[in-house]
Each structure stands twice: as C-alpha cells, then as structure tokens.
Amino acid sequence: TQQIEKHSFDVVVIGAGGAGLRAAIEARLAGRRVAIISKSLFGKAHTVMAEGGAAAAMGNVNSNDNWMVHFRDTMRGGKFLNNFRMAELHAKEAADRIWELETYGALFDRTKDGKISQRNFGGHEYPRLAHVGDRTGLELIRTLQQKIVSLQQEDKAEFGDYDARIRVFAECTITELIVNDGRIAGAFGYYRESGDFVLFEAPAIVLATGGVGKSYKVTSNSWEYTGDGHALALRAGATLINMEFLQFHPTGMVWPPSVKGILVTESVRGDGGVLKNSEGKRFMFDYVPDVFRAQYAETEEEADRWYTDPDNNRRPPELLPRDEVARAINAEIKAGRGSPAGGVYLDIASRRPAEFIHKRLPSMHHQFKELADVDITKEPMEIGPTCHYVMGGIEVDPDTGAAAGTVEGLFAAGECSGGMHGSNRLGGNSLSDLLVFGKRAGEYAASYAESLGTAKPRVTADSIDAAVATALAPLERESGENPYDVWHDLQTVMQDLVGIIRRKHELEEAQKKLVDLRGRVASVKATGGRKYNPGWHLALDLRNMLVVSECTAKAALEREESRGGHTREDFPKMDPAWRRINLVCSLDGDEVNLTHQPVPRMRDDLLTLFERPEMGKYLTDDELSDFDAAKA
Ligand code: FAD
C-alpha cells in the first residue's frame, strides 16, 4: 500500500500563474480555504515571463480609448470567432483589475503626468498596455504573491496559522482529477522532488495550468507547458473548444540553436523596430490583408510618423495582429529572402538611440547579449515564428468560468481556458484575461463550494488506487521505449504536420501518426526511482500532450478555412459560414470526439458598435440582414 499525504480544502487552484493566483485571492477573500498548487517553483510561471504588458482601456495615453474600442479590437484580432461575452467582460473589467493591482502594490511605469503609462501593441488601436519596462509579468506575479502573503499574515493574526485559509504547494504536479458521480471530489498528484503522492479533497477546482507549447519543437514555452489542465479537464468530462487555433508568435530567437524559440517581445516593434528581409527590404507593406488595409500605413514615411502623431497617420504594418506577421515572415523565408540562421531581421538599432533601447527594452538587450552575443543597440536581431500561445482551451461559461460538459465543480481561467481570444489573441490581452477571469473563476468556485455545505462528493478508494496505478505504470513496466524518444517524435509530428501552414494530406498523416503514438505513449518505460526523476515526469506529461495534440490535429483537419492562428494552404480564405461554428472536443475512452456547435450570436448593443463595411467581410448573408435590422 502507498503512503499518501492527504489534505482537504474548499477550493483547489491548480496553477500559480496570474490566473491561478488571482483566483486563489478571490476564493480566500470569499472566506474559503484554498490550496494553490504549482508544478514548478512558486513564482515561476509563464506569467512571470510576460514582457510587453497588460492591455486595459484606461485611456491614460490617448483619452479616446474606452472599453468599446478595446472590445472591437479584440473581436477583430480574433476574427470574430471570440466568445463575445468574454470579450465584453474583459474589455469592461480589465482596467479595474489593473487599478486593483496598484492597491496590492504594483508599480507600473508612469506617464509624465503621473498616470499608469500605456504602450502600443499589435492590433490595439490606441496605446493600451500597462507595463513595467519589458518585465511586466514579473511585477504582476510579485504583486499577486505579495497580496497572498498579506492575506496569510491576516490569517496568522486571526487563527494563529499562516496557512489557515490559503496554502501553497510548490513543485507538486497534479496527474488526475477525481470525479464522483459527475462532480469534482478532489485532485491527485506527486511531489517533484520526493516522488511522494498527495491527495487533495475538494469540491471545487480551478484549472489555471497555462499552455500546451511543449508539444512543438520550436516554442517560447517552458517545460511545464504540456497541456495538463486541458487533458485533466477532458478526462474529467469537460470539453475543449477550438483547439486548432495556436498562436505562432512572429518573433522568436532563431540562433544559436540551443535557444531557438525563446521569445523576442512584440514591444520591440511597438517601440519602433521594423522587419527586414535579406535584401534589406521592409517587407510588411506587401502583406497587409484587405480586411486591415484601411487601418495601416501604405508608406514607410506615414508609418514612421505614426509613432509621434498617431491621430493623423495610420499604424505601421509591423503592428498587424500576430498571425498576419508570422505568415508574412514565413513567406519571406520560404521565398529565399531569409537570414543565414533561417529567420528574418528585426531592426531597432538603426531606428532608436541606444539609450532609448536600454531604457525600454532592458531584458531584450540582456537576452541577446548573453545568449547570442548580439548587441541590439548596434545590430539587427535574427528572428522567426515560434509556437507561443493556445487560443483554444477548456470550454467555460463566460461569466463564471465553470467548465462545460458533464462535470460539476470544475472551473478554468487563463490560457488553459478557451473562447475569449477567438482565432487569434492580441498581445497584452492575456495578462488582462488572467486577472479578469481568474477573479471570476475564484469567486464562482468559492460560491459553488459554499453552496454544497457539508454535502461534498467523496473521494473513493477505487479512484485513488486507479490514480496511483496510472502514475506508477511507467516505472513498473518491465520494458518500454524511452519517453524522450517518444516525445521527440510527437514534437516532430506537430511541428512538421500541424504547424503554421497546414494541408489536408499532412493533417491526415498527422492523425495516423498520433494514433500510432497512443500505443507508444501508453507503454513508455521510465528508468530509476521516484525521487526527482524527470524521465518519469515526462512519461506522465506525455499522455497529456498526446490527447491535446490529437484535439488540435483533428480540429485543424475539420476546419476548412484559414482564420487567425489556423492557416490551411488548401483553404486560404476566411469563410463566413465557418465563423458560425465552434469545434468542440470531448473524450470517449481513448477517442477524441469532435462536434460542431453554433457560435453564440452577438447581442445587438455590441453588434452595432461595428460598421456595415467591416461586418460585410465577416458575416454570412443572413447574419448581415440581422445586422442591418439591429442598426436600423
Ligand atoms: P501560467 O502563468 O502559464 O501558469 C501556469 C501554472 O500552472 C504554473 O504555475 C504551472 O507550474 C502550473 N501547472 C501546469 N500544469 C500543472 C499540473 N499538472 N499540476 C500543477 N500545476 C501545474 N501575455 C501578455 O498579455 N503580455 C505579454 O507581454 C506576454 N508576454 C509573454 C512572454 C513569454 C515569454 C510567454 C511564454 C508568454 C507571454 N504572454 C504574454 C502570454 C502570457 O504570459 C501567458 O498566456 C499567461 O501568463 C498564462 O497565464 P496563466 O495564469 O494562464 O498560466
């Protein structure tokens, strides 16, 4: 029999990035007992790596900005596939969440008159990203952690115990959600260092586990991002929505090979950096799609004037949404106009004084100097697309974060949830998403837990035994493949066949290969024991990466159009009929089921924030009649 450490909480938050921490704070403020669990060290999450800033229509730098402009930009960025209610809540509440962070002690950069400064970013009509140099995520995490410490101090004063109502479990990976009769009963996992098992009994769980990037070879994501929350949700009976939409960030490092994929912040372009090919041409002017033509400069002169006079000039095409820029870079490289290391050039050195670059982009300067021996105040950077963010995710109720599907008591927020960003996320909209929907998920998870009173679902002995058996299987097998080999093959399938440009026959091949990989993943062998054993951890992560990859490949084959982060070479256009369809994945045994669900119709008061010529590009004819009626 296994020794299993046991804990009991009202709400368990899995993930200690911005979404998880904000959810935990809210659940604790509602008086619930909360656990925060994180696979890596506390404080090390993607949120801490966020550079550019958090988007919120505070109107500090341009007073024309307001939630309606932000809502429009977000819907445009997502090519109108966003869950409109999430985009609405996000646009309306982001500013309050940023101001609230100040009350927790955040110190944002300032405008000359002392307001929170806001910077330009792709797809945002006005300067909108609240920032701290290019280290915004660090400040966000620091502040949320500080708030947690202050709440723990209050609890110490009241109960004599810092952990009385909020406790952190770091380096602890959840491998299984425990469900009893369709309701969440708890979560099971192991400590990274000791390999010991731990069980959390809890009626409400908030998933805030972030992204899936480690299924790809070239990614800005770090080791923890193996789609755990997505897979846990699926196995518990929840659904995933629109998993075909992945964001390939246009600017990742391409050299040296050991750092390929590491992010180069969009702020470089927001602050004046431009993209050039091997012929020295500023090529983005050739890639402005029709839907965006009216908002983007046609000449370099106009684009350059925009930085100082945005009211009278149109924005540079380097600041198109990320999907457009990534495809353009891909096309330049394919046409033989790439840089020696297989990217293109991002140049800020010839455009801004060294002093400005040091002040605005200190981390980028440090990153290139340390990792590539390139001084970005003197030389251009070599960059190329990198798998960065997943727009698809756990299907949730927009107001409460409750997961859709057959399970009760499960909530999700942040990158692991889906819907908010449609087919493409605008930069800066993730940090604000974490705060807005983290708070909401925490609030509703707390009230759900409270509503159950003492009638909490029980964790059965059978479910614990099953979780233990699954976790130990890779160690106990007599023989089997090395998990690293299987992972390499999975990444190759996703990178080569389900990457930035997709084709029917390649997606079909990917599906076959992923089905073959199922057997291999199920029989990997991890050598060694349970103490700090990365091979074993990978073996367990692999089954998550696999099922999430299957959802992505399946949905990518199904969606016969190109939209946002999903580009089909064989269906290169956006198709208004597909805009009305969400692709939803559920799990039936080992099989991923894919269904079509109608996209909820936008409320008239939101619909009429747009104009006819623009909507003509996105809506079907009968939707346009509705639009005309709403406008009339
Ligand atoms: P994360 O911050 O990713 O945290 C996930 C947490 O879940 C971690 O604590 C992890 O350990 C834990 N976890 C995962 N699996 C398990 C498990 N099985 N058991 C227990 N714990 C688990 N967005 C912006 O808006 N602006 C930016 O400027 C920006 N810059 C970025 C720069 C980089 C380099 C990267 C990678 C992303 C950037 N993004 C940016 C995106 C943004 O940072 C992320 O989308 C966001 O931080 C995700 O937050 P989250 O709270 O959902 O999850």
Give a written overview of the molecule.
InterPro entries: FAD-dep_OxRdtase_2_FAD-bd, FAD/NAD-bd_sf, Fum_R/Succ_DH_flav-like_C_sf, Fum_Rdtase/Succ_DH_flav-like_C, SdhA/FrdA/AprA, Succ_DH/fumarate_Rdtase_cat_sf. It comes from Luedemannella helvata. Keywords: Coiled coil, Flavoprotein, Oxidoreductase. This is Fumarate reductase/succinate dehydrogenase flavoprotein subunit. Residues 500-527 form a coiled coil. It contains 19 helices and 20 strands. It has 632 residues and is an alpha/beta fold. It has a 5-stranded parallel β-sheet with strand order 7-3-2-11-18, covered by helices on one side. Strand 2, helix 1 and strand 3 (34-37) form a beta-alpha-beta unit. Helix 1 packs parallel to helix 5 (136-159), helix 3 packs across helix 4 (84-103) and helix 14 (483-497) packs parallel to helix 16. It is globular. The model has no long low-confidence stretch (mean pLDDT 96). Residues 14-20, 37-40, 45-47, 49-54, 136-137, 173-174, 208-210, 220-221, 224, 228, 263, 389, 414-416, 427-431, 434 line the site of flavin-adenine dinucleotide (FAD). The site of flavin-adenine dinucleotide (FAD) has 42 residues, from helix 1, helix 2, helix 5, strand 8 and helix 12.
